[in-house]
Structure formats: C-alpha cells, structure tokens
C-alpha cells in the first residue's frame, strides 16, 4: 500500500494535520505513541533493553523504569544510539502488523513520526510531508499546550534537525502558520496522494 510519511518540528502541528487526514478516512500510524506502547509490549524489544541496560530497566509489574533508562541515555550518544537500534526495528514491526490490518479499499496510509528523517524511516515511505510553522508560533503553542518555559521548548527544539535540513529531504509541505488554511492544504495533498496511490497500485499489480 502507498505510504506517506509526515513529520515536522515540535509544535509545528503534524498531529493536527494528521487529524484532518483521519477525517478524510486515511488511517494514521502515530509512530511516537506506538514507540512508547511497545516498550512494554514487544517481547524482543523488552529482552533487548534488559540485555543492554539491565533487568532494572523494568519494574516487577512490567512497567518501564523510565528514570533508569533516561539516566543511562541522557548525554550518552552511544547508549542512545543503542536504544534507538532496538526501538526502531520494533516500531517497523509494529507498523507492518498495523498495515496488514488496513483494508485494501484504503487508498494510502500515513505514518507520523517526529524523527522520520533523523531515523531514516522516511526511506520506507513512498513520499513525505514536512509540516512547518514560524518559530514564534511553535514556541507559543508548546508553552500553552505543555505548560513549559520558552527555554525548555528551545532545548527540545535544539535536539531536532532544523526545518531547513528537513525540507531538503521532504517532498510535500504544509505551512501551519495560522494564516493559511491547514484543511485546504491537506485536501490539496489528499487529491495528489489519491492519484499517486492509484499509479502506485497499477505499477505494483
Ligand atoms: P509535538 O511534536 O510536540 O507533539 P505536533 O507537531 O504534533 O507537536 P500539534 O500537537 O499538532 O503539533 O500542535 C501543537 C499545539 O498547537 C496543539 O495544542 C495544537 O492544538 C495547536 N495548534 C496546531 N495547529 C494549530 C493551528 N493552526 N491553530 C491553532 N492551534 C494550533
């Protein structure tokens, strides 16, 4: 099935854009949410985490010991890369399982991931969308949504690739600047993806 990847910096509005696609009947795989869920569900991943970071990575009731893991990977690039090398394949497995449940009548699916480009998972998508918003608007949204300070938002932003770097890799764009309609932009992209998905289907028949 034709796969569209969608990403954007924190507060850009990628989840908001995905909700519009969902209204149009397009199923969305929220990779970041799934990544959190599978930490306590995917047996291979759990075993890998315990081997890499110790049995204390999980409490006796099976819950993840976030504090323990964060303590190891915080400011330790090698350990973070090791964790990502365990989590990313597990997310791919979850995506494949999810996609296999999607009816053939669905024209295409959307995969939302904050680190679509950073993780390399964009290579498994047929096309990609980058959602952008002006810096000041993103700061305002996140301070409101998460009740955090401007400095805390900036620290989170600094950990991500810049929009300039991401836009070099993206195929389509949504500008969520609260001036241009996000609904109209999604509708226009949806029309393009329907055509692309039809061509993809006939090429792969
Ligand atoms: P994150 O990566 O941090 O989860 P995101 O890119 O998924 O962020 P959203 O959660 O969609 O961004 O949006 C961030 C906040 O901004 C939300 O509270 C959302 O309701 C609000 N928001 C997004 N787009 C708009 C808009 N066009 N007008 C008003 N508010 C908006």
Automatic annotation (TrEMBL):
<keyword id="KW-0963">Cytoplasm</keyword>
<feature type="binding site">
    <location>
        <begin position="11"/>
        <end position="16"/>
    </location>
    <ligand>
        <name>ATP</name>
    </ligand>
</feature>
<dbReference type="InterPro" id="IPR001977">
    <property type="entry name" value="Depp_CoAkinase"/>
</dbReference>
<dbReference type="GO" id="GO:0016301">
    <property type="term" value="F:kinase activity"/>
</dbReference>
<keyword id="KW-0067">ATP-binding</keyword>
<protein>
    <recommendedName>
        <fullName>Dephospho-CoA kinase</fullName>
        <ecNumber>2.7.1.24</ecNumber>
    </recommendedName>
</protein>
<comment type="function">
    <text>Catalyzes the phosphorylation of the 3'-hydroxyl group of dephosphocoenzyme A to form coenzyme A.</text>
</comment>
<keyword id="KW-0173">Coenzyme A biosynthesis</keyword>
<comment type="pathway">
    <text>Cofactor biosynthesis; coenzyme A biosynthesis; CoA from (R)-pantothenate: step 5/5.</text>
</comment>
<dbReference type="InterPro" id="IPR027417">
    <property type="entry name" value="P-loop_NTPase"/>
</dbReference>
<dbReference type="Pfam" id="PF01121">
    <property type="entry name" value="CoaE"/>
</dbReference>
<keyword id="KW-0547">Nucleotide-binding</keyword>
<keyword id="KW-0418">Kinase</keyword>
<comment type="similarity">
    <text>Belongs to the CoaE family.</text>
</comment>
<keyword id="KW-0808">Transferase</keyword>
